[in-house]
Structure formats: structure tokens, C-alpha cells
Amino acid sequence: MSSSWVVDVDCPEPQAKVEGWVMDMEKKLEDAEPPAKVLRWPKHCIFRVPMRFKMKTVEGIVSSVFKPQTVSLGPFHHDDKELKPMEEHKLRAVRHLLSRDHAGRASKLTLGGLVAAVQKVADELEDAYMDLGDEWRGEKRGKFLEMMITDGCFLLEVMRTTAAGKESIPKDYAHGDPVFSWYGIQHIKPFIQRDMLMIENQLPLRLLETIIAVEDGTCPSAASINSMVLKFLEREDAPEGTGLGLHPLDIYRTSRLKGASQIKSNKKVHHRGLPTTPTAKEVSVVRPERVVPRSAWKLSEAGIQFRPSKTSYLDDIRLHNGRLYMPKVEMDDSTAYRIHNMMAFEAMHVSTGNDVTAYVLFVKDLINSADDVQLLERKGILEHDLADDDNAVVRLFNSLTRDVSKNWKSQLSQVRQDVDHHYRSNHLRVFLYEAWSNLKNKYFKSPWTLLALVTAILLVVGDIVQAVYAVISYDPNEKGKPKMN
């Protein structure tokens, strides 16, 4: 049989051709890792989501949990056609912000002054975005500055309008304003909240800090900016001393974690004002051992009692005296996109821990069926308002953990080991419980079967009692005595 895939070893390529290939390859190797790009890697905190993450979403929808639906914030979705209607409202926000009198300023705030201030931190803002296109850099930086100012002013105006309340909304907006009136903000707020938590749709909080500093004539505290963002996202304030968040998704994630909050309160600020989240070395973790995952029902059979923790921090999980304390979590249609984006951020930002991912993997092991969901609901651990039944929760966690590495170190590794040790040390209890469960499922499904079994047991017990009574009442001396007439 002839084949076209034949190499003629007797006819080597000309030496000049080989040298040309080598030179081309060497050039590619030189360009493969430019030093300037490598230096920017640690500063990146806003990313495009790789396709491998987008393929594992709920109900087969490829990218909806990572894609903004109402407003673009930052460069990655700036040119999305469906988000263009919000651009005119961004410009209105800038206009209103510039037209107001600001108490901390001796002179009127001008667009030129605002541009100059943002220009000073432009390098930091650009470095926050990984794979920022050339259309935003160099001679085209003006386009980047315009986008930063319009997006930043818009977000500030939205958050301030929400915080002001119905009676204190700025009077310079019309009563029927579709966005910045009381009616408008109540309608659009949930959609902006959603888009603010998309990892591809982030604004550095350094930008908001710069705009506010120009407005007020003094630099605002990190706590005030974090608090403003978290209040808009309907979360409690970050712990006192927490550094300025990287962006809304970062500070939201921090507010959900007890460990991250404690570490951030002591961390230093890097990169000329842009703080970093805790590294793996900063978090006390335990090397994970092989632990067999067991459902909530299995653990309950081993005597483990589920109790709600005193806080809502996702990593506030511990085993104490046979009681597994876990935070109460309310799940609804927004849960999928919130968790997906926090997990994606943990996977792509090298200085961030994996605490949210560890929590999701922990809960996924507990929830194998609707029965497990119902058990956690009864114990006050879980509450959901999903459109489907309890199986929707099972499907959600299966989707969240698809293709996720389960060998990472985390603060929950020790809890896993403690739970596993408790289960293995209660083999007899588990065996008896499983035997009783099998007996109940096999013989007690019908009330008539149960009634027949109880009747049979009573008859057997009656026969035993009668036999025992006969033995006890038997007197051998009575046998030889003559009968009395």
C-alpha cells in the first residue's frame, strides 16, 4: 500500500532553509514573554472569562452569567450593541455632577480638572485590565479616559441616588428621569447590581476614589468607598481597617468571607494605591487529605447535627461536639451569577484565595438529592426561592462545580477531615441506622404491611409470655400427690 506520508531521509532540507526556520522560531520565542507584559501580570484584577468557564453554566446557557445585560462598565463590553442605550445616561451623569456646587471646592469643578486627575492614575487603571486592547492605549488613551470618566461618574450617581432616599434625591434631575429619579432608580437598580458583579464588567475603585477626591478637594477614606459600594449591593460594611477594594466584585467577595475580611484589615497597600487580596501564604490552610464525600443524610445518620452559624460568612463552618455549624444561605435566581463570577475571579486572580470555591465544593458534597436539600432547609442552613423544586438546588451546585479542581488547599480542609473522622468513628451507629432505614423502606411502605407486622409480633410475644408463665407455674411435686376427691 502506498502512502503520501513518507519521509525521504536521504534528501535532507537545505541548511539555509533549516537556519531560516530556527531564526523564525527564535523570534517567536523572544516575543512570547515580553518583560513589560510580565511586570503587569500581578497588577491585573479584571479579566475576560475563558471559554472553559463559560461552558459550565446553568441549563446549558453559555455565557449569560458572565455577560452584563444593562450597562457596560469598563472596556470589555463598551462596544456591545445591546448596551449602547445606557451611554446617553452616562453622559447626563457627568453633566449633572460637573454642574453642582461642591462644598469642599473653592472653585467650580471643571471637566478639564476631572480629566487631569484621572490622567494621573491612567497607568494604574489600564494595568487593572488584563489583555486591554491597543484601541485604548498610547495615542488612543483619550478614548480610555473618556470611558473611565463617564462610567465612573455614572456609577457614582447611581449609588448616591439610591442612598439618598426618596426625599433627598438631587433636585437637578427631572421628576420623570428614567434612571436618576426615585421611580427610575427603583426600577433599574437590580439590573445595575447584577452587572456590577460581572467579572468582565468592573471599574477599579481607585477610579471612584480619584473622582470623589476631585469633587471634595480631599481624598476619601477607603472605608467610605467600600461602604458606599457594599450598601448599594445590599451587603454589610466591610470590617474596620479594610483596605480599598480592587473593584465592586472584589469587595463584595470580601464581605462574604470571614477569613478574607480579617486578613484584609491587616494587609498593606501595593501598586501605588491599588490593594491586593490575600495570597495563599497569608491564609492559614491545611494540606488536604483524601476524604470520601458524604451527603447531609449520611452525616446525619452518623450522628452529626446541623446547626446555623451565628454569621452569614461563607467560610464560617466548623464541627464542634458532633454539631456542624454552617452559615444560613438564601438562594434565588441571582445566586448562580454571583457565585460563578466570584469563583472565576478566584481562579484568575493569582493573589486571591479560593474560599468561595471551597465553600461551594463543600456544600456540593452535602447535596446529592432533594432529600439533602430538605434536611438542610429544616435545620435552617439553606433557604431557596428557585423557580423549580428542591432538585433545582442540586442541579445548581452540580453546574457550579463542574470541571473545578477539588485538590486545592483551603480553610475548610480541616473541617472536612474532622467530619470524616467523626463519620468513620461511628460505624456501629451508621450500620444500625442503615439497617433500620432499609427495613423501613422495604416493609413499612404500606400501613397494612406495618399492621400485619405488628400483629405478628404481638402474637409471637403472646406465645412467649404464655410459655414462660406455664414454665414458672409448673411444680414437679404436684405430679406424685394423690388427687383429692
Automatic annotation (TrEMBL):
Keyword Transmembrane helix applies: yes
InterPro entries: DUF247_pln
Domain of life per record: Eukaryota
Assigned keywords, A-Z: Membrane, Transmembrane, Transmembrane helix
Transmembrane segments: 448-474
Pfam name, any one: DUF247
Alphabetized PANTHER family for the sequence: (WILD MALAYSIAN BANANA) HYPOTHETICAL PROTEIN, BNAC04G53230D PROTEIN
Protein name as it appears in the record: Uncharacterized protein
Organism: Aegilops tauschii subsp. strangulata (Goatgrass)
